[in-house]
Structure formats: C-alpha cells, structure tokens
Design brief:
single chain; 206 residues; mainly alpha; 7 helices; 0% strand; globular; Ferritin-like; Ferritin-like_SF; Ferritin-like domain-containing protein
C-alpha cells in the first residue's frame, strides 16, 4: 500500500501519536475517575481505564511487530502529550474550584475531547489496514479489530453521559444512564439514533 517514503513516515507518525494518545488517555481517565460524582459513570470510566491500558499494549505489540521504537518522540507526538497533560490540568483546576458537579462536567468534556482524537487514530489505522498488504496489513488489522468496539464505546457513551449531566446541571430533564448506554451504541449512526430516542425515554419515565 505504501507508495513512498513520505507515506511510510506518515503512517509511523500516526502510530506514534496513537501510542501517546493511549499513554495520556490512561492519565486522563485516572483523573476523571477522581472527578466523577455519579457512581455508574465512575464505574464506566474505570472499565475504560483498563481498556485504555490494554490498547497501549496492543500498540506496543504493533511497534514490536513492525520494528518501530516506541520511545521515538516526534513533534506531533509532543503535541498529543501536551494536550493530554492540559486535560489533566484542566480537571485538577476544576476540582480545586470546589464544585464537584462542575468538576465532573469538566472531566466528561476532557474525556470526550481526548477520545475524539483516540477514535480518529484508530479509524485511520482501520482504513490503512484495509489497504496495506503483507505483515503490515495483518498486524494493523488485528490491532484495529481488537480495539474498535471499545473505542466506539469510549467516545459515544461518554458523550452521552456528558450531555445528560449537563442537562441535569441546567435543570432540564436528564436521562441517566444515557440512551447511548442503554442501547449499547457502537456506531455514529447509533449514537444519533440514541440521542433522538431520549425524548421517548423521558416520556416513559414520567
């Protein structure tokens, strides 16, 4: 699939950023768990933390199989690391402000922002895996299939949680756990349908 040294370098850059995203993601979840007020959300994030640690191991295996050095630092990887550190700092700032509900909302938003990048990384890896051939293709495909469903859950479910927690904080009817959780959403289309269905859920709950 790779047609030039530039393409190969870009693939490696994606993998370096993906690894750094998982490393930072674990720290983000550790902090988010401290911010969680809702017990169900805390439990959810604890599961995602363990899965994120597993995703890091999956990527380290990819690096090993493809002969890449996981310690290499690129400008793009440094940016990813900086963003991850910023999300952790934002949650710490919110906690110090003394409003647990507000800190939980900040944590939800930080997780959504981090998981948006994480989800994109894996989506791109999935696209590459469909075009790549030989060992590179099989290694990337195996890694993608191992984490795809969990990455969908991390992004779409946390987005749902954050939306509903904001609804509650605004004094508006909230659906907890969110529709994404109830319907076990795994796709962008499913997330859209779940959000549309929340009105029916509210009607049934009253």
């Amino acid at each position: 699939m790779v047609t030039s040294k530039h393409d190969q370098a870009q693939l490696h850059e994606l993998l370096y950023q993906a690894l750094e995203t998982e490393i930072g993601g674990a720290k983000i979840y550790e902090m988010a768990i401290e911010c969680a007020v809702n017990d169900d959300l805390r439990k959810e994030w604890q599961e995602y933390l363990e899965e994120t640690r597993t995703h890091r191991k999956v990527l380290l295996n990819v690096f090993s199989e493809l002969g890449l050095d996981p310690e290499v630092r690129t400008p793009g990887r440094e940016v990813v690391a900086h963003l991850g550190q910023s999300y952790v700092a934002a949650m710490q700032m919110a906690m110090k402000a003394g409003d647990p509900v507000a800190a939980e909302l900040v944590a939800g938003e930080c997780v959504v922002l981090a998981e948006t990048k994480d989800h994109l990384n894996w989506e791109l890896i999935g696209h590459v895996s469909k075009k790549a051939t030989g060992k590179e293709g099989s290694v990337l495909k195996q890694a993608f299939e191992a984490v795809e469903q969990q990455e969908d859950h991390h992004l779409y479910h946390t987005t749902g949680w954050t939306r509903e927690l904001w609804m509650g904080a605004l004094g508006l009817p909230a659906v907890l756990p969110p529709p994404e959780e109830v319907k076990n959403v795994e796709t962008k289309i499913g997330a859209s349908r779940a959000e549309q269905a929340r009105g029916e859920m509210l009607k049934r709950s009253h």
